[in-house]
Automatic annotation (TrEMBL):
Xref: PROSITE patterns: 4FE4S_FER_1, 4FE4S_FER_2
Pfam families the record matches: Fer4_7, FrhB_FdhB_C, FrhB_FdhB_N
Segments crossing the lipid bilayer: none
Record key words, sorted: Iron, Iron-sulfur, Metal-binding, Oxidoreductase
Keyword Nucleotide-binding: no
Needed cofactors: FAD
UniProt-recorded name of the protein: Coenzyme F420-reducing hydrogenase, beta subunit
Domain 4Fe-4S ferredoxin-type: 6-36, 39-70
Length: 443
């Protein structure tokens, strides 16, 4: 689809995240989702667009539709009695910490997200659940699927750091009546909310949205790189991204890879996965311009309890931010949850909040009119160390997206920027100590 027809890629300043809502809602079926050369999903022209209706741009979460998470959130939740709002979290009714003993071991954190989905089905609140689950297909290891039973939902437990898109399941929602619950990352939930404004069937049929805290998405190359680090030589047909080991804290989970020849390979977060994640390798460009940490358009948002008192428990613990009275009522019994101040949830995601506030502000400052309009005010950090850190990570991110060589050469190519970051970290600690000392003297 050309720029004159309102392509989501061009309208969104080349910041397509691959959610698939444009392809799902196109009245002419002119778009289909396909792999691009970066190992990301993007819309491709399946048939010529003849009307130029612009619907694809209206449902794109990065296209600058005039809506943001604040305006959407106010419309969805602003009138709910007892609702509160914080700039970090958006609207919220309540916040909890806990786990589901039944789901904890197979889930990414405490299993609460899977428990909620099963509860919605068993109580008849929804008829069908849309979530990400393994496919067994090496060309598309994970995908959104539609389930009608709690047993099926459990196949989708755990995280999937792998590209997925919604076009197929949203088309089924439009074709098959019923009440649906949908899980998704912040940008995907925002896209669904934008689509609901354009489509009555989606407004009526998507009854519950369950969000997941997100710092960044990853291309399929992230999985290929992690598999290479783990020593995989055969074709990967299955991945478990959040395996739990009883002798490790929750933060040092492992990835395990199943190959077609029946072998299984395992690698822990601290054996190179964390380095790739933290330095934004294989991260889509759109993630650089996201300011939504807590899936502000979702009825409830689940996340890991990255807090000192919980992180050492290898079994995992969940935090939940609730916006919908319906979901809050469903959480009242049958699960081990306790109230926790919302400030603790924000603290648990401090690193992600910093990236989507300070780092985003600098990127907006650098790119000026080329950048999308966001709620964060463009600003140049006063700290030169932070500016250099952001620049180094942005270079590595871009290099990782373009890289087409042998994985054995990949990390070596990152060496200069990794060395710069190590030097900056060595400087940062004494600088912070000096700043603290000066602050104490002023006090």
């Amino acid at each position: 689809m050309g720029a004159s027809m309102g392509s989501p890629v061009t309208t969104g300043k080349n910041l397509c995240i691959g959610c698939g809502l444009c392809a799902a809602l196109c009245p002419e079926r002119a778009l289909s989702m396909a792999w691009n050369r970066y190992g990301e999903y993007s819309p491709a022209e399946a048939d010529p667009c003849t009307t130029g209706c612009g619907l694809c741009a209206k449902v794109c979460p990065f296209a600058g539709s005039g809506e943001n998470e604040d305006t959407l959130g106010e419309r969805l939740y602003g009138a709910i009695p007892g609702i509160r709002h914080r700039p970090e979290t958006g609207y919220y009714l309540a916040s909890y910490v806990g786990y589901s003993e039944e789901h904890r071991q197979r889930s990414a954190s405490g299993g609460v997200a899977t428990w909620i989905l099963e509860r919605l089905l068993s109580e008849g609140i929804v008829d069908r659940v849309i979530c990400v689950a393994p496919t067994g297909d090496p060309e598309r290891i994970f995908a959104f699927r539609i389930f009608e039973s709690p047993e099926e939902v459990r196949t989708g437990a755990g995280s999937a750091y792998y590209p997925v898109e919604l076009s197929g399941v949203i088309r089924e929602v439009l074709a098959v009546p019923g009440r649906y619950a949908v899980t998704g990352l912040p940008c995907f939930i925002k896209a669904i909310r934008l689509a609901q404004q354009q489509n009555k069937k989606l407004r009526e049929r998507v009854a519950v949205t369950l969000g997941l805290v997100c710092g960044q998405l990853k291309s399929r190359r992230f999985t290929e790189y992690a598999a290479a680090l783990a020593g995989v030589r055969g074709e990967v047909v299955g991945v478990r991204y959040r395996g739990k080991s009883p002798d490790q804290p929750a933060s040092n989970f492992y990835f395990s890879f199943a190959t077609r020849d029946g072998e299984e390979h395992k690698i822990f977060w601290r054996e190179g996965i964390g380095e790739a994640w933290g330095n934004r390798w294989f991260t889509p460009k759109a993630c650089n311009y996201c300011d939504d940490v807590f899936a502000e358009c979702a009825d409830a948002t689940c996340m890991d309890a990255w807090l000192p008192e919980y992180v050492e428990d290898s079994r995992g613990t969940s935090l939940v931010l609730v916006r919908s009275p319906l979901v809050r009522e469903a959480l009242k019994e049958g699960i081990a949850l306790a109230p926790i101040p919302v400030e603790r949830l924000i603290q648990s995601q401090a690193g992600v909040v910093a990236v989507k506030r300070e780092h985003l502000a600098y990127r907006l400052h650098l790119n000026g009119e080329r950048a999308p309009e966001k709620r964060v005010v463009p600003a140049r950090p006063k700290n030169p160390i932070l500016r250099q850190e952001i620049a180094a990570k942005d270079r590595m991110q871009e290099f990782s997206r373009e890289f087409e060589g042998c994985w054995a050469d990949f990390r070596a190519a990152m060496g200069p920027d990794l060395a710069r970051l190590a030097a900056l970290r060595a400087i940062r600690v004494p600088v912070r100590a000096l700043q603290s000392l000066r602050g104490g003297r002023r006090g």
